[in-house]
Request: fold
Amino acid sequence: MDMQYRRLGKAGIKVSVLSLGSWVTFHNQVNVDSAAEMMQAAYEAGVNFFDNAEVYAGGKSEQVMGEALKKLGWRRSSFLVSTKFYWGLNDKPNERNTLNRKRLLEAMDGSLLRLGLDYVDLVFCHRPDADTPIEETAHAMHNIVESGKAMYWGVSEWSADEIRAAWDVCHKYGWHKPTMEQPEYNLFHRERVEKEYARLYEDIGLGTTIWSPLASGLLTGKYQKGIPQGSRAALKGYGWLKDDLTNKDNLARVSKLGKIAKELECSLPQLALAWCAKNPNVSTVIMGASRVEQLRENLKALEVLPKLTEDVMKRIEGI
Ligand code: NDP
Reply:
């Protein structure tokens, strides 16, 4: 099935409903050659958005994506790249867990250097920062957009109130407004996207670029018999994911979802991704993959969309 494109909320820019992100994978599991292979497979399938962040692999994820982009040589206008700031790369007081003006402006330059780009398309405040006034952060993000170093700015895992406050201050002063939020959204994690943000889609035209659509792999069914070798939960530094990925109640639900996938003649990851894309307030579903085969499988998820009838959605809701 052909790729579908959705407006990023009320903005004019369109994102492919399926997109590709680099958290955990780029640098740690995926080198430049594999990154280029994956990005090419995605691009050929119509993916136009590639998600990144300063903090991923301590800056190396941006480097890998930058080198892959150089290798691929795509026309710059044909794709979108993002980055995000908050955690930082250094430990001094003004450089860690902050959205202060100095840090944001310097961070933007660092990311562009690593990515080898003149501008990113989307730039996010990766988390809220209670130690910096929202007005200061919003003004710095406005300045980044004004400078041409990013096209749109947004936030990630901010509360509805924080998003609204940022939007209001931008509205008041005529600054570029936050366009999108990047929240976690999957069959196991729904509250924010479906309830907390509900009125923001209409009121301020918020777009969403949702993350971990497979709950880090739980929704592939691969954890049903324990933690497989080479999987994310087996990686050094990601042990904190183990509880959720091996939780008995979660696995029982996953097994029931697997039966529905079988009936629909698709794989479980395809069903779980299509379920995310079914929500019209989701602008794009950011997928992760450690191998190109996973990505090729997942890219077929849109074929499942027409199979998600009211009846099937009700059964999934039951689970
Ligand atoms: P998912 O929940 O979809 O998990 C992806 C992982 O699941 C893969 O890396 C792979 O891990 C496994 N997997 C995927 N497809 C298959 C398959 N078909 N068969 C078997 N295993 C599969 O997404 P991510 O958690 O990776 O998040 C996606 C993107 O969202 C990130 O790259 C990042 O850009 C963004 N993100 C943003 C955050 C934020 O705070 N704003 C936070 C987290 C992510 P493996 O093979 O290693 O088991």
Summary: Residues 21-25, 51, 156-157, 182, 211-217, 220, 222, 231-232, 269, 286-290, 294, 297-298 surround NDP (CB under 6 Å). The longest strand covers residues 80-85.
